[in-house]
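Dear U.,

For the methods section draft, I wanted the exact inputs and outputs in one place so we can describe them consistently. I've listed the two proteins in the order they'll appear in the manuscript figures. Please don't edit the C-alpha cell lines directly; just add comments below if something needs changing.

First protein:
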Amino acid sequence: MKKWRCTVCGYIHNGDSPPENCPVCNATSDKFEEIIEAQAEGHSPGKDKGSLLMQGYGFIAEEMYKNHAHPISVHFPNGVLPAAVIFILLAILLNNQGLALAGFYNLLFVVITMPVVLLSGYISWQKRYQGATTKTFTTKIICAAICTVTAGGLLSWRLVDPNVMGPDSAGKWLFVLGAMIMLATAGLAGHLGGKLVFDNR
C-alpha cells in the first residue's frame, strides 16, 4: 500500500491514492506527495538575503521556529485568559473592585504576551505549513485576530472607564460579552492548533 504525505501539515495517509481532502488541515489532494523510502526527509530553507534587518529577522525566526516558540508562548495568554474572564464576571456579579482589578491585570498580561504569540504563530505557519490558506488556517488566523483586537479593546475600555465593571455601568454586560468572545475565539484557535499537532499521524 502506498503512503502519501500532506505537504501542508505532514499528515500521513495510507492508500492507493491520496484523500480528497486532508482530515487535519483540509488541504486538497494535489497537496499530497507519495512517500518513497529513499526520499530525503526534512526541509532546509536557504538563508535570507538582503538588508541587515531582514537577516536579523531571519535569524530570530529560525531560532523561534527551531525552539518551538509558538507552542510555548501560546500557553501563557491561554492560561491567563480564562482567569481574566472569571475575575471580570465575578467582579460584576459580586460588585467587587478587587476582583475587577485582578481581571484588569490578567487582561493586561494577555495583551502584553499576544505579540510574541502572533509572531511565533506566523513564523510556524510560514515555515512548517508553507503559509497554506486552507479553512483550518484561515479560521485560526481570524480567531487570533478577533481575540487580540477584543483583548486590546477591553483593556482600552477599562483604562478609559475604570468603573466599567461597576454596578452603575451601562456597558458592564457588553464588557462581559466582549470577554466571552475573546475567550471563545482563543479556545477555537487552540482547538484547531491541537488538531494540527495531535491529529498529525
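Second protein (the one for the lower panel):
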Amino acid sequence: MIESLTSVLRLNRVSLWDLVDILIVGLLIYEVLKLIRRAHAVQISIGVGLVVGLYYASRFTPLQTLNWLVRDMFGYIVFAAIVLFQADIRRALAHFGRAPFFRYLNRPEATDETIEEVVVALRMLSEQRQGAIVAIEREIGLGNYVESGIPLDAAVSYDLLVSVFRPGSPLHDGAVVIQQDRIAAAACFLPLTVNPSVSKNLGSRHRAAIGLSEETDAVALVVSEETGLLSLVLDGQIEQDLEPDQLRYRLEALMLRRTGRQPREEAKPLGA
C-alpha cells in the first residue's frame, strides 16, 4: 500500500490527463456536497452512510445474517436514492446544462415590455388585495407545469393578467406561466415546498412559489390575498414586501442581465 501511495505521489508520472481526471472528479464531489447540504438530504445521506458502515462491520465480524440483509438491500438503495433525490438530481443536471459552453442554447430573455406589463398588473392586484402567482421561465423549461394548466399562448398584458386573477375567474386559483414573452398557460399547478424552515405564516401561493424555485431557476412572483404585499421568489429564497419599483428593478436585473442592458433605476432598500 505504501508503495502504491508513493507511486501516485511521484509528480513526474502525473500527466495532463491525470490532472483533468482529478479536476472532473473534484467537480463531481463538489456538486454532490452541494446537493446534500440541504437539511433533508443530509439526514438521508447519514442514513445511507450508516447502512454502508453496517455492511463493512458485518464483513469483518461473524454477523452473517446482517451481512446478508444489508448486501441484498444495496440494489434497492440505488432505486430509493433516485426517488428520494429526484428533484436534486434534476437540479444538478440542469446546473451542468447551464455551463458556459451551452449558453448559446439558452432561451431569449424577457423584454422590457413584458416586465412592465407584469409589474403594472401585480401592482393593480396588490392594491385590490387579489391573490396571484406568476412564474417566469428562464433557462430551465417549465413545460411540465404548463401542461398542468389551461393553455393560453397569449401576449403578456396587464389587462389579461388582472382578468385571470379576478376572484370570479375560473383560472384565478392556479399560477400563470410566462414563456418567451408569452403567457403560456394559466391555472397551473406548482409543487409545494417541503422545507421545514419555511415560515408557517406563508400561504399556499408562497409555498408553491418556493417549491417551484427549488426545482427550477424560474422567477416566481406572488401577491398576497390577505395583505396585498408583493413577493419575489428565486432559488428557494423569498423577498417580501417589495414596492413596484423594487420589483421592476429586480426583474430587470434577473431577466435582462445577459443582454448587456442595465436596469433603468436603482431600487430602494428593503424596508425603506
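Candidate sentences for the figure legend, describing the second protein: The chain has two domains: 2-104, 112-259. The beta strands are 132-136, 150-155, 175-179, 182-188, 219-223, 230-234, 237-242.

Thanks,
Y.
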